[in-house]
Amino acid sequence: MSIAMELYQLKTFVTVAEEGHLACAAQRLNTSQPAVSAHINNLEEELGLSLFTRTPKGMRLAEEGAVVKAQAVEALSMIDTIRDQAGALKEEISGTLRLGLHIDPRYLRIDRLLSHLQRTHSRLDIHLLQRWTWQQFDDLARGRIDAGFVYRDPPHKKIAALLLKRCNIRVVGLAAWEDRLRGADWSQMSAMPWVWTPPNCAFCAIAEEAFAKHNLKPVKVTIADQEPVVAVLVASGIGLAIMIEEEALYYRDAGKMAVWDEVVGSIDLNFVYNRKREKEAMVCAAIESVRKVWEN
């Protein structure tokens, strides 16, 4: 069996252990489920161990498998480090850089970031992936993205954060509601319809806290789990919502929304990455470029 094949089997094994399902692992590895199953079977035969317990709900890591997984993760990390260091020695960083975006790219200076990366690291392929903040923290831990833009601080120290900006939070509504919003108090605002976000969204926590301070409960007419959907619903008159001030003022100036007078809170915009990978050449290139673009 070749060394390349052994390394690929380890990668397949770790992916199945993280996903818990052959189908999900196959999708993540961009291969077929039978191929994934064959790699696991061959690895178990090679090691003489049963790495998983097969259940109707998926693949559960066996006790022996947990030990092997820890060693496999370390081995694969070392291989990645060697490859990155070799690329740095040749003064050329190549590969696919996967960046998570949680809001409209115009508020993240993505155009300037891409231009900088293309000038400084032309061999990088850059994939932009739309994700909620909470999804990116999970994707970073699972290796699905390399870095990303998020609101709020990471949930644990395994994820490093580079603070880019503190953003004010504003309430927006249909442009025709400008007179209703002007001078409205919290009680009046709570009585109007609201477009809410899921519980694991940072904006949900900010809105809940703001209303709780005034002992009020807003009228929630719908929950939208994507920022562009929230914007469309607000502009259509479905209800009020909260968004960062820069975005709110953009829609106001475009004549699509009205903005309430009060600032209801603030939230940090961060660039995040897995702390274990902060010395990898590709991740370093991303951090360096983000710092350059956001230094002013």
Automatic annotation (TrEMBL):
What residues does the HTH lysR-type domain cover? 5-62
Supply the Pfam families for this chain. HTH_1, LysR_substrate
The record's keywords, sorted A to Z, are:
DNA-binding, Transcription, Transcription regulation
**One example GO MF annotation:** DNA-binding transcription factor activity
- Which Gene3D superfamilies does the protein's record reference? Periplasmic binding protein-like II, Winged helix-like DNA-binding domain superfamily/Winged helix DNA-binding domain
Q: Does the keyword Chaperone apply?
A: no
Q: Does the keyword rRNA processing apply?
A: no
Q: Which family does it belong to?
A: Belongs to the LysR transcriptional regulatory family.
Name the chain's protein: LysR family transcriptional regulator
